[in-house]
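Entry 14. Structure prediction run on the chain below.
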Amino acid sequence: MAYSDRELLARLIQCEAGGEGEQGMKAVASVVMNRVRAPGGEFARVSQGGSVRNIIFQPGQFVCARETEGGQYNPQNIFNMRPEAIHYDIADWALAGNVLNEVMGSLFFFNPYSPTCPPNFPSTLGYAYNRIGDHCFYMPTSAYYRT
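Output returned:
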């Protein structure tokens, strides 16, 4: 299917953060768009000057962008999502250039399934910046810009 950037982002927001409330969904959308607009490093090369699609489908990044996970069908993928108005509103908000202040320039997030966020993620490329709901958000370190 040939989804628009808006549709892909709305589906990713629902899949990755649908249970995290508006702030959690805006945080995830902000990270995606921070990657699209990254001034250097791996994400700048992947986005090729602003491709939301390239960032969402970059291998190994978003579980929700994979139809299989660990050799098994992944039923929670963006192709199975049915976004609602809130997901489209947040996608529009992010595509318009807005970023949630609580995540600022964060390029990474993940759910550690624990009450604390590891100080770095992944490895030394990001440092813990904030936690919103179940997700930890990470700002890039200087090591990221050498990727």
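The radius of gyration is 14 Å.
Filed with the rest of this week's runs.
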